[in-house]
Design goal:
Oligomer: homodimer
Number of helices of chain A: 10
Strand content of chain A: under 5%
Helix content of chain A: over 70%
Shape of chain A: globular
Distance between the termini of chain A: 31 Å
Radius of gyration of chain A: 17 Å
Chain lengths: ~180, ~180
DNA sequence: GTCTATAAATCGATAGAC
DNA sequence: GTCTATCGATTTATAGAC
């Protein structure tokens, strides 16, 4: 699913970088076209609206999350599933750094995630695994903390000059404190 | 300092809400004017550029943080200072919810915080208190986790229907795990 | 798949009246 | 402090040639 032509892949890649730097609302199709080195019309030939580009970007970022989610859900125990998922989320976020951060940070993207059913479903699965069993109102807070901490820390100025390996291990160590395992 | 006329206060209040909902880049001066019920020209009479509005909004949000920071820095011990500051940050974030969230989330606002000296100074003081003594690269990660967790959780969909009191106490409980006290 | 050219709307910003 | 009116630039988006 989501088979991209090379031209579409170029649009998505450029959009991802620009969204992270200027925000979705602050990124125009002209900026995307300039970054690729083509005209606006060429971009429109791939995606008919700006929303479609945002959608395609969201799908790419969420695809990695779904992969980690699938292997987590296949785990024998709930605690092991949570361990696998959080580890996968950290890996994804660290690898892409500011790229991944926009997913949970940009106000426009947050709206997208809430309004589009498929995205909501994925986020619900993520939350279910992180929360383990119970889902009382209070039990939902740790899931929000985990998601926020991962997405926020990887793009935080304080972690900018850390290597991927150092950031990953220290972030894992911190999140471990929130649960006991991770 | 930062004495606002009633008209300026209306602009800031409207901008704060719109920035949180649509992002700074996705908010036009026309939208702000419409929200207040005046024309664009009236808004321009208060602030000559969009950047000045962003600046004014940032100052309002940061003013509360500086107050919490001052009382934290007056604490007798570093660990007590951290406890006071994190508590203050939680209070601020919970009270304003999505309002406060934009400070550390919007890409445009992040740029502002990094480029304007006064804001950088405040953030450096916050980080110093949260990190306690040492400031090795790895020691900076917990500070980033704390800031991200607070700012992200209060606007996370999972915490949307929690009361302020419940959100505050559960968030405090989670952050306590990251340190030992809080 | 990419281009030129263009439409219609909106953008940030200004001038000047009240 | 707010208005009308306007500027020039930029926005999303389309038509049609290559």
């Amino acid at each position: 699913m989501t088979a991209h032509t090379p031209a579409q892949a170029r649009v998505i890649e450029a959009a991802l970088a620009l969204f992270a730097e200027h925000g979705i609302g602050g990124t125009s199709l002209q900026m995307i076209a300039d970054a690729i080195g083509v005209t606006k019309a060429a971009v429109y030939h791939q995606y008919n609206t700006k929303d479609e580009i945002v959608l395609a970007v969201a799908e790419v970022v969420l695809a990695g999350l779904e992969a980690a989610l699938a292997s987590a859900e296949a785990s024998p125990s709930p605690s092991r599933a949570r361990e696998v998922l959080i580890g996968g989320m950290i890996d994804l976020a660290v690898e892409r750094r500011r790229m991944a951060g926009i997913l949970q940070r940009d106000p426009v993207m947050l709206r997208f995630l809430e309004e589009h059913e498929p995205f909501r479903k994925v986020m619900e699965r993520v939350n279910r695994v992180v929360m383990g069993g119970a889902s009382t109102p209070r039990a939902r807070v740790p899931a929000a903390v985990v998601a926020s901490a991962i997405a926020g820390t990887v793009i935080h100025p304080l972690g900018r000059d850390l290597s991927d390996a150092a950031l990953r291990s220290e972030l894992t160590r911190q999140l471990r404190k929130l649960f006991g395992s991770v």
